[in-house]
């Protein structure tokens, strides 16, 4: 099993798969020729085993430039094959209408789209009020059904918003740009939820630019906090702290809740780095800001609807998880989950997976497996890749401990792989 690296890419089946950018065929053929498991191949390209399986079975397409670059680098695909693929014009971009070589953007999307809009179309406040309400409803729907069903809907809705720009005058023009910023932030979050990092960063950058143009300090700070969240998700604690601190100090005049979000994001970065004192200090500060914000909810931006004591309890549990304070993590996440409404289906799935991890860490193997197995269907449905990967992590912890429940969880996950 396994050809020598220098001859591997001359194999006609593998070369054809690369030049046509059929990544499922690339993975299948590469593993056949090298004898690698899905897990080992995933380690080379920075993907979970479940994602490798989905790509091989064509359940998932590679739409992220960042993921494509990881595959090219991890498998050491020769430059000449990449060039043939590029000439064939099959490289996809993560955001329709945005050319993204790496993380860089091309010409301004707003100017490009609105330059072809009939400037005689006038905008009224009632239309913008309706778009505000529609965006709020879509945010709530995403909490329950996950991001995948809503992505194309939100892209179309953003096109509607930018189409209005040419016909907007005075304060209404500012409202249109603010709405565009909020839509871009939501699209960024959904791309992040699907681990499409390049697309998420591009949309966050776009949202930040529009927020600055509209004079919306709350959204400008929020986009930085969400980029900090991306860094945290990728295991980059120091970058998480730096971005969160930028969110705190670069946009004066933000609401108490937005300030609290930035403080707790910095705390999560410190926790990821094992810096317990800084993490607890910032968590205490964030909790004080949240309590003050709850006294005047009318001062908070609409997208902060989820940010309350329940959500913050769960964040303390996450910090404890990173600091390997397993018992506190179990206690905090359990309390938070009990108070989290059922309509937050995606978040409940994620925190149940984290609870299973914490239970495995504390040595309660049977309970960890019970929570994890019960979470598998929702994690497979709306929790890929984050909740799904956390369940795989739990299985790995159980197996390292020699618990038989580890194999039981692996079997349950395999049914959905």
Tell me what you see in this structure.
Helix content is 71%, strand content 0%. The chain is mainly α. The chain has helices spanning 5-8, 12-19, 23-34, 38-45, 49-56, 65-75, 79-87, 109-114, 125-145, 151-163, 171-193, 197-214, 217-233, 237-249, 256-272, 276-294, 309-322, 326-339, 345-362, 365-382, 386-400, 404-414. Helix 3 crosses helix 5 (49-56) and helix 12 (197-214) runs antiparallel to helix 13.
Topology:
Layout: H1 5-8, H2 12-19, H3 23-34, H4 38-45, H5 49-56, H6 65-75, H7 79-87, H8 109-114, H9 125-145, H10 151-163, H11 171-193, H12 197-214, H13 217-233, H14 237-249, H15 256-272, H16 276-294, H17 309-322, H18 326-339, H19 345-362, H20 365-382, H21 386-400, H22 404-414
Précis, in short:
The chain has 417 residues and is mainly alpha-helical. Helices cover 71% and strands 0% of the residues.
